[in-house]
Amino acid sequence: MTAPIALQLYSIREELNGNFETGVRKVADMGYVGVEPAGFPGTTPQEAAKLFRDLDLAVPCAHVAMPIGEAKQQTLDTMHTLGSTRIVSGLGPDSFLTVDLIKRSCEKFNEASAVAVENSMSFAIHNHWWEFLSIDSGHVYKAMLDYLDPQVLFEVDTYWVKTAGLNPATVVRELGARAPLLHIKDGPCNKEESMTAVGDGIMDFHSIVEAGGTTTEWMIVELDRCDTDMIEAVEKSYIYLTTKELAHGKS
User: Fold this and answer.
1) Tally of structural domains, the chain
2) What are the Cα distances from residue 142, in Å, to 61, 98, 158?
3) In the 8-state DSSP scheme, what is residue 132?
4) Using an 8 Å Cβ cutoff, are 226 and 195 in contact?
């Protein structure tokens, strides 16, 4: 059985800024099983949660602030409102420039994970390319694994892994059960050019799905930017992944 397919709503942020409900309804009509929120433009977490329930859209995770410091209670309240138990967050490139910075960043991730676990949730790191760059005699993510608590999970953005020069399938296989969430996007795999609908770029999703095996719980489409119409690209991505039997939707 393939993993269900969700959409990171950041992909259609311009649509949501115009009318959140209309944008989400388009996603549901395409057949997506779930959505991953990243903010609630023009609405509230409460209204969004009701809309997701009405449309039978699961919320496997949400990209929110780490539940530490001043953001702790708001993040926990948002997750409870959404009925979601996987908190996803990350840090910028300047947080991983040296081994000492990596250690300090991992301390924040560990703290966030501990709070999540205390509240019957889990915490996953969302990566960009900078976590997979070389540092000293290895790679940033390898150093991270030395400092992270084993309960910290990963939402592996497979596109950025390849953009950094590594093989996404190898990374997904290496992380195993710690990578239940996969971000799926396609394109030329460089930092300058825009992304494409899934299936129109150079990514090898068959090898990624094979590497994830039964540990992949969700395939989450996310297109940061696209030169074509975003709604059309999101729907084309859904069609590609489902017809190629790389993920399953509602239809």
Assistant:
1) 1
2) 24, 13, 16
3) G
4) yes
